[in-house]
Write a structure and sequence with these properties.
The protein is of the alpha/beta class. It contains 18 helices and 15 strands. The strands form 6 sheets. The chain has a 3-stranded antiparallel β-sheet with strand order 3-14-6. The protein starts with a helix and ends with a strand.
């Protein structure tokens, strides 16, 4: 698998580290006014200057070079960090210390609320970026809006798709991808009956669980300022836990950890039949066998289209930046035109116009026997269920997932009981940080 893809997707289920008390940052600081205007951007470009851009992506230097080629009076220092977690931790440390923060930083969608509430990200509303709203998928634009502030522009996206090994399915007598979760459950039983050492899927991690609850119509997290409601037994959460827990307790889910060597071997050796991931994974299956895979829409409860995001990130200007207007000029460049073209060369696009670009839409992949798989991802992007919110401490939530739900997966335990245990941990933590959780 390509190095860049491994770097990008390995962070989807990971936890961003928390630094300091989150609620204290939002309650102790006075509201920060939006950062400037479109005229300020033009004036900053005319004046020029120097910016620092933190990143974990190998592609950022080419993006910075393209910008400075058009604006030679601007210098951009690209600083490469190990991964998204490192960027979050280092940024929060810099904000707390009052020095050392960059001007520009990518942020995973799940972490945007956390960094916004800790005062790390600038409000870009007044720069006029709302004019770009129609260019992006509804779910990614919603992700960069936190507490009615625009705190970034979307980069890539991760509408979920089902990637399945058609050889395993066919051998079990299944001629097409399951369209409903009932069909998925039946397919699981058929696969295990045909090959007892083969599993339809693996148990999953925190990022997978939140995305699957989202795709099931769940809204377990509701955030309004400091008031947070957590209900991991709402209808969507329980639907998913009941179905997934049944597979787990019947021994039909693999115990291999996603992205591990064992997971890669299981895919290569036809021991793992299905992946349910963001569409960024469409381009990452070549190492696991040519022609044996297919991409299909996610199953739903009633067979009608419905999906969720799984991964993806936006690009933000930091609140400590001394040159927000010039940094915003870089974001404007990356929103469309040459900058956006560079973004869309890697990852799965968040811009709707790319979905109808024949070069992209008609691209074929050897892993899928020349299937035009991007079209499935594009359809998924249009069916992402609206209204999802992440916790303002989602990084912590993901970090402690293994203490409750992760243990239940390993022991084939009760997922609903584990979700309730996870919820209690999250309620207690949020209240300790100064939020009003379930009050």
């Amino acid at each position: 698998m390509k190095k860049n893809l491994w770097t990008r997707v390995a962070a989807v289920g990971s936890a961003s580290l928390l630094v300091g008390a989150l609620a204290a940052c939002q309650s102790d600081n006075a509201p920060v006014a939006p950062s400037g205007s479109a005229n300020d951007i033009d004036a900053a470009l005319k004046k020029g200057g120097e910016l620092t851009w933190w990143t974990w992506s190998d592609a950022t230097q080419a993006q910075a070079d393209a910008f400075t080629k058009d604006h030679p009076n601007v210098k951009i220092n690209v600083v490469k960090l190990d991964n998204p977690d490192a960027a979050v931790t280092k940024l929060q440390n810099a904000v707390k210390a009052g020095s050392g923060a960059p001007d520009i930083v990518p942020v995973e969608y799940q972490t945007l609320p956390q960094l916004t509430m800790t005062g790390a990200l600038a409000d870009l509303t007044s720069f006029g970026f709302d004019s770009y709203k129609a260019q992006f998928t509804a779910s990614t634009w919603n992700a960069v809006k936190v507490n009615n502030k625009l705190v970034g522009i979307p980069l890539d996206s991760g509408p979920m798709v089902l990637i399945y090994n058609k050889n395993i399915y066919t051998a079990a007598g299944i001629t097409e991808a399951p369209k409903t979760w009932d069909e998925f459950v039946k397919a699981s039983a058929a696969i295990r009956e045909k090959k007892p050492d083969t599993y339809i899927a693996s148990g999953g991690d925190a990022g997978f669980f939140t995305s699957m609850i989202w795709a099931s119509g769940g809204h377990p997290f509701t955030v309004s300022g400091e008031k947070v409601t957590i209900n991991l037994q709402d209808e969507g959460s329980k639907k998913f836990a009941d179905m997934w827990g049944g597979l787990l307790q019947r021994g039909e889910l693999s115990s291999v950890s996603t992205w591990s060597d064992e997971w890669s071997k299981a895919l290569t050796q036809n021991k793992l039949a299905t992946l349910m991931m963001g569409s960024w994974m469409i381009g990452g299956m070549d190492d696991f066998g040519a022609g044996k895979w297919q991409v299909a829409p996610m199953p739903t409860w009633d067979g009608s289209p419905g999906s969720a995001e799984n991964g993806g990130s936006g690009l933000s200007v930091t609140e400590p930046s001394k040159n927000k207007a010039l940094a915003a000029a870089v974001l404007r460049f990356m929103a469309d035109g040459k900058g956006r073209d560079l973004i869309n060369k890697g990852g799965f696009p968040s811009t709707v116009t790319e979905f109808t670009n024949p070069t992209w839409a008609d691209a074929t992949f050897k892993a899928y026997g020349d299937q035009k798989a991007n079209q499935v991802g594009a359809a998924s992007a249009k069916s992402v269920i609206a209204g999802w919110q992440y916790l303002p401490y989602q990084g912590y939530a993901n970090n402690v997932f293994g203490d409750s739900v992760g243990k239940a997966i390993g022991s084939k335990g009760d997922l609903n009981a584990a979700l309730q245990e996870w919820q209690k941990t999250l309620v207690d933590y949020g209240n300790a940080q100064g939020f009003q959780v379930n009050k």
